[in-house]
């Protein structure tokens, strides 16, 4: 299975390149697309009676005419409802001409119990919010409670952004072609797609690459070759040393969660850098984790000089005050030769919103550490208000813009976490689980990222791996999960990735 995601524009380009290279032409691709949907209907919804096929005026509708014809040829009872007539000379017009089913107006569509709806109204060409008769068709489908098979995308869902325009069908199954689209993975669109099946319609892997796509569905298949495994002659520091800054006496748990996660994710040594006032609290709860007093930037630099950790985690359990941001800037300007990467999380991000310009400038200096930022929606909006406030940008585009602006790998968290690199690469995570919506789970994620980077995994792939592992650990543990459970649950995930 290939993991590239294609925007509707990139899919159009893949289509154009495929037709240009021959031998398959536009109607040939459409027949294959409709054929894949018809096969799905026959195998999964064999008892549906009748099948209502809803056709729009473009090529999505063209696929619908193919589906209707193939189902009738297989003996299925089919009714076909259309919103308009395909443009003369188009592939959709050819498909309509080949279809023997009488066309009824969409206003006559009234699904009954036992029927199935094939939604072929709009796909990649969705250009405006659903309205009027189409919205009424969505409402009648919901009211009837009948399953929907969506062709390419549920009508109303943007393939590029996952936005729902006006309203959208909720599909049990969506059959898309060649590759998934960002809108299948980004919410709210993802919640409308149901199971997404990718049908091969003859668009080659090389053609997909030629579209220039730089976005992938997050999956171990493509980052696992870079997943670290300790060398036979490893010692604890060569396996990667992570330093985690602790909050004050009443806020030490977050750093310990991050530290334990870093250790479970394979860092050979983890040090918690604790304010003196919180040393006792940290000492009471740490065993294999090293504890070191750090009350000032000088203390931190002394640690860096003495221990040369590979990666620092800064943010869990801190506060949003400007001095917290200034400390982060101080660390960044002393990175050279002392540590390689800085993972900024939580208030380590929010505090920098007091000195954005200085941060963005510092992040671009040649001696700056590699940066990974792990904001949730609120933190993202505080550090990148212009990007967050631009309604024309999808979550994917926001993450990419932020990565370029901060010269950082951005892990834009949520049920559809997007990971973006400053060079334009991006990934959308798809194994997220609501079990992770629990206090402290973000602290754990920052520790996993740090551990993988400390073990020499490149920052973008490390962030992608960490996001996937975090969710996989939560899924394996299951209901009742609290953040403390995640580090131990990681053990099995790491073990499986390491074989
Ligand atoms: N590319 C490929 O490789 C392959 C593509 N294939 C298929 O083609 C599909 C893309 O086809 P497509 O480009 O013709 O766009 P499509 O989704 O049919 O919509 C365009 C029409 O709908 C209209 N319209 C849009 N939104 C509307 C709204 N809310 N309310 C009302 N009208 C609205 C829009 O109007 P306009 O914007 O022009 O005003 C235009 O008339 C793709 O999803 C896949 O199924 C397959 O056959 C196999 C290979
Ligand atoms: K559709």
Assigned CATH superfamily of the largest domain:
Ribokinase
| Number of domain modules | 2
Mean pLDDT: 97
Q: Would you identify the CATH architecture of the largest domain?
A: 3-Layer(aba) Sandwich
Inertia-based shape = elongated
The side-by-side strand order for the widest beta sheet comes to: 8-17-16-15-14-13-12-9-10-11
In this entry the ligands are: ligand NPW, potassium ion
CATH class identity of the largest domain: Alpha Beta
Figure out the total of helices.
21
Strand content: 5-15%
Return Rg in Å: 26 Å
**Span between termini:** 21 Å
| Sheet with the most strands, sense and barrel status | 10 strands, mixed
State the share of residues found in helices, binned by percent.
40-55%
Question: pLDDT under 50 segments (min length 5)?
Answer: none
Structural class by sheet pairing and helices: alpha/beta
User: What's the count of strands?
Assistant: 17
CATH topology of the largest domain: UDP-N-acetylmuramoyl-L-alanine:D-glutamate ligase
Short overview:
This protein is an alpha/beta fold. It has helices at 8-21, 26-44, 59-73, 91-98, 132-144, 182-185, 189-193, 205-210, 220-223, 253-264, 279-283, 297-307, 322-333, 347-350, 356-363, 377-383, 385-388, 395-406, 441-454, 459-477, 485-498, and strands at 51-55, 78-82, 103-105, 116-120, 148-151, 173-177, 195-199, 215-217, 241-245, 269-274, 290-293, 311-314, 341-345, 370-374, 409-412, 418-420, 426-428.
């Amino acid at each position: 299975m290939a993991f590239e995601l294609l925007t509707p524009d990139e899919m159009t380009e893949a289509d154009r390149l495929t037709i240009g290279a021959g031998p398959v032409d536009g109607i040939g691709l459409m027949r294959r697309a409709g054929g894949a949907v018809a096969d799905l209907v026959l195998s999964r919804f064999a008892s549906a009676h009748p099948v209502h096929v809803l056709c729009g005026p473009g090529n999505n509708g063209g696929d619908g005419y193919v589906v209707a014809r193939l189902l009738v040829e297989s003996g299925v009872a089919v009714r076909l409802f259309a919103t308009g007539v395909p443009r003369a000379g188009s592939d959709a017009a050819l498909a309509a001409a080949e279809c023997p089913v009488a066309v009824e107006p969409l206003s006559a569509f009234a699904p009954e119990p036992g029927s199935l709806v094939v939604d072929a109204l709009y796909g990649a060409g969705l250009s405006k919010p659903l309205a009027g008769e189409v919205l009424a068709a969505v409402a009648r489908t919901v009211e009837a409670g009948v399953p929907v098979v969506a062709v390419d995308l549920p009508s109303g869902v943007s393939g590029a952004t996952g936005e729902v325009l006006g309203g959208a069908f909720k599909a049990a199954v969506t059959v898309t072609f060649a590759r998934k689209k960002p809108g299948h993975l980004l919410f709210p669109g993802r919640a409308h797609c149901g199971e997404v099946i990718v049908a091969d319609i003859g668009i080659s892997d090389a053609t997909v690459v030629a579209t220039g796509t730089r976005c992938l569905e997050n999956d171990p298949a493509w980052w696992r070759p870079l997943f670290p495994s300790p060398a036979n002659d490893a010692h604890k520091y060569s396996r990667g040393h992570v330093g985690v800054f602790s909050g004050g006496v009443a806020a030490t748990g977050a750093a310990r969660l991050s530290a334990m996660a870093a250790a479970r994710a394979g860092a050979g040594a983890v040090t918690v850098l604790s304010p003196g006032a919180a040393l006792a609290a940290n000492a009471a709860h740490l065993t294999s984790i090293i504890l070191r007093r750090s009350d000032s930037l000088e203390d931190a630099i002394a640690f860096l000089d003495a221990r040369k950790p590979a990666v620092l985690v800064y943010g869990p359990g801190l506060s949003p005050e400007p001095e917290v941001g200034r400390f982060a800037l101080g660390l960044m300007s002393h990175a050279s030769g002392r540590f390689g990467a800085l993972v900024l999380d939580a208030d380590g991000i929010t505090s920098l919103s007091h000195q954005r310009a200085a941060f963005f400038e510092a992040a671009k200096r040649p001696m700056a550490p590699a940066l990974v930022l792990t904001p949730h929606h609120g933190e993202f909006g505080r550090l990148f208000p212009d990007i967050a406030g631009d309604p024309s940008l999808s979550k994917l585009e926001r993450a990419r813009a932020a990565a370029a602006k901060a010269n950082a790998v951005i892990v834009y968290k949520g049920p559809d976490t997007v990971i973006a690199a400053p060079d334009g690469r991006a990934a959308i995570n798809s194994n997220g689980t609501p079990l992770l919506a629990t206090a402290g789970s973000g602290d754990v994620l920052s520790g996993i990222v740090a551990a993988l980077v400390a073990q020499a995994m490149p920052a973008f792939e490390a962030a992608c791996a960490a996001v996937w592992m975090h969710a996989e650990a939560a899924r394996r543990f299951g209901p009742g999960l609290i953040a403390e459970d995640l580090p131990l649950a990681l053990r099995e995930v790491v073990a499986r990735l390491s074989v």
